[in-house]
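Need residues for this backbone.
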């Protein structure tokens, strides 16, 4: 068996190896990761959570997602854009989230930028960077899955140019994977092609 190839889980189904480390990951992998996400607020949530994940394990964020949603008004752009200094202080003291001042500030700043965009503009901009699936080889092992692509680099550049923070090329690619712009489930993974 190749290093990083899909592994068989307790239910007999082959999955991406990272999905089998915890039950939380199995559920996230099978039901969410790689499935298309649309809507400005939903994509703002994903952009924000990917930023908070930077430098941390995704499971750390996944297990706090309910806390993040409660703390950030379900990631409604208009609501977060209206957060005050008191809200920022509340977030910095909230044990239900990652209390990183730079990431909190970036999330608040991003909401304020996005509040001025037209409805659907974030969705359209992100999805305009989805690569043609026919031009992408199907990954057989984790080694075949890139961390950065030309599309994620381009998406990062345009998001930064438009005023968003914590949206580097690696974060942009993780966003593309999570939101179904690319299908990086391995070739024999049970979730491949479910988007």
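Answer:
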């Amino acid at each position: 068996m190749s290093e990083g190839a899909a592994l068989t889980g307790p239910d007999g189904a082959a999955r991406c190896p990272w999905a089998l480390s915890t039950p939380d990951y199995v559920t996230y992998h099978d039901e969410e990761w790689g499935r298309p996400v649309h809507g400005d607020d939903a994509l703002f949530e994903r952009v924000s959570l990917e930023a908070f994940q930077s430098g941390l394990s995704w499971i750390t964020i996944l297990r706090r997602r309910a806390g993040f949603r409660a703390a950030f008004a379900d990631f409604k752009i208009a609501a977060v854009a209206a957060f005050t200094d008191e809200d920022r202080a509340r977030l910095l003291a909230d044990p239900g989230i990652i209390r990183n001042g730079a990431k909190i500030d970036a999330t608040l700043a991003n909401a304020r930028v996005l509040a001025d965009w037209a409805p659907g503009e974030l969705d359209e901009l992100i999805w305009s960077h989805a690569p043609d699936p026919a031009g992408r080889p199907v990954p057989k092992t984790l080694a075949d899955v890139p961390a950065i692509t030309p599309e994620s680099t381009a998406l990062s550049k345009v998001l930064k140019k438009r005023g968003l923070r914590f949206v580097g090329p690696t974060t942009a690619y993780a966003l593309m994977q999570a939101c179904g712009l690319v299908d990086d489930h391995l070739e024999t993974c049970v979730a491949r092609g479910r988007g």
